[in-house]
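user: can you give me the structure for this one chain? tokens are fine.
assistant: on it. calling the predictor now.
[tool input]
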Amino acid sequence: MRKHIVLIALAFMLSLAIWMQFVTSQVQANIISADVDIHPNALQLKEGGCGNWITAHIDLPQDYDVNDIDISSVTLEVMGGHVSVSKYVVEGSVLMVKFDRAMVISFLWSMVGHMSPRVKYEATLTVVGNLYDGDAFEGSDTIEVFYTHI
């Protein structure tokens, strides 16, 4: 009798595990590939720098609308760090977001230990966020990064 109870319990647990895997695979949000263009295309790592912002222009595929983006979810991923949006505006079908340049540079400084002065290196910056319906989007752009040794 005990053996039957154990087998029934194991069968129930296995069924539950299979059902949970099925349900979670159905609930995963869609990840939308966005076109992202980041300016400036080249960034000198120095204090003060030129300007206050790193600007990203985000364009979603045809079936999506940038007005459906939850701005509070949008971040710029830089060398393992995340920078939140400081300013934004919708320009037609493109969302323009601005990120604090000093914060971006502070994350990029982690590259300096591996860089030679006055040599340009590439850094990939990724913009991620969510739409109000829960779908996620992401898009990347590569910029040149350099510094001048003082």
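assistant: here you go. The CA atoms of residues 36 and 118 lie 27 Å apart. Residues 31-146 form a domain with the Immunoglobulin-like fold (CATH 2.60.40.10).
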